[in-house]
Amino acid sequence: MDTYLILLHESNKIPKLSPEEIQAVIARYKAWGERMRAAGSYLGSNKLEDTGRVLRGDSGKVRITDGPFTETKDVLGGYYMVQAETYEQAAELCRDSPHLDYGPIEIRRIEVL
């Protein structure tokens, strides 16, 4: 069985939500995680902070800037780590994800070094 990262990208189509609506969305994410746990696929997950740092090599020097940049179309907002036999099986775990209402999901297999 392989390990995959389910990367949750946020896009500019996220609506302004009331506190009650936010709690309902959180409940949907929790239920989705519970379904993956019940299937024996869930390994972990986290939401990423909205701010961070970006490091770039520049002529032998490292530049550090604030990021991610707000002008980008989508930002990585969080991730889930799951076990699956194939990309197709990992994608199947995402078909009922509440995140699809708010942005794209990227799936990447972790290559063990």
Automatic annotation (TrEMBL):
It comes from the Bacteria. Residues 15-110 form the YCII-related domain. SUPFAM superfamilies: Dimeric alpha+beta barrel (SSF54909). Belongs to the YciI family. This is DGPFAETKE family protein. The lineage of its organism: Bacteria, Pseudomonadati, Acidobacteriota, Terriglobia, Bryobacterales.
